[in-house]
Amino acid sequence: MYKLTKFILTDLLQNWIIHLFALFFLFVIMGIFSLEGQEDKALVSVLSLVLLVVPMLVMIFSTIYYYNMSDFVSLMLAQPVQRGQVLGSLLIGLGLVFSLVVAIGLGYALWWLHWSSAAWSLLLVALALVWVFVSMAIFAGVVAKDKARGMGLSLLIWAYFILVFDGVVLLLMYNFSDYPIEKVVLMITFLNPVDLGRVLVLMRTEAAALMGYSGAVFKHFFESTWSTIVALMALLVWVILPLLLSLRLFRHKNL
């Protein structure tokens, strides 16, 4: 597994697209902080960019990479290598490379321009989302044998977590606005890693004061250390669950 992971890491680091992703984050974030007058507002803008772009780039690139490595995977499975080791190597390789991209592009820019507890939380959330969506991309690749269907499934997963889920929550809040459903919405947030990451960061900025009573409920929950740990554990579950499902399907898949 170590040799497989090392090969995948070497192959990915030689890909110029990976370096382009890091430069993209670095220069765009520097541009946002240059244009925004207030650092907290700039951080919220960077948060919106990260939550939109990181899942999309990770999902698309990881899914394409999985299908491009199909011949290599078939060759490895002809050797005395367990299928779980192959999937684990893909997850670790892609996760480490994209974590490096985020650490350089996002982490360096935040450290240089505006380092705070909110910026630290944003970096942690971005790194967590990298592993979550790499795991989901592998799941999409395992489920769909055809590359076109796999890409379509990846985009559907991305659209659900970025667009559809928020629309469902807003519809729920609108229809039940006369009832105290803030705690219910808080629990529903754990069903979406993107929304969970957004709340974790916003609760450490001045934007939390603009969320009214809902913001007070969320801030009261997430201001304690154990609640933050629970949220991070929930993100870890979002990494492990798709991987376990992928492994179960991959073990019985005919390549």
From TrEMBL:
<feature type="transmembrane region" description="Helical">
    <location>
        <begin position="155"/>
        <end position="176"/>
    </location>
</feature>
<keyword id="KW-0472">Membrane</keyword>
<keyword id="KW-0812">Transmembrane</keyword>
<feature type="transmembrane region" description="Helical">
    <location>
        <begin position="87"/>
        <end position="113"/>
    </location>
</feature>
<feature type="transmembrane region" description="Helical">
    <location>
        <begin position="45"/>
        <end position="67"/>
    </location>
</feature>
<keyword id="KW-1133">Transmembrane helix</keyword>
<feature type="transmembrane region" description="Helical">
    <location>
        <begin position="12"/>
        <end position="33"/>
    </location>
</feature>
<protein>
    <recommendedName>
        <fullName>Cu-processing system permease protein</fullName>
    </recommendedName>
</protein>
<dbReference type="Pfam" id="PF12679">
    <property type="entry name" value="ABC2_membrane_2"/>
</dbReference>
<feature type="transmembrane region" description="Helical">
    <location>
        <begin position="229"/>
        <end position="250"/>
    </location>
</feature>
<feature type="transmembrane region" description="Helical">
    <location>
        <begin position="119"/>
        <end position="143"/>
    </location>
</feature>
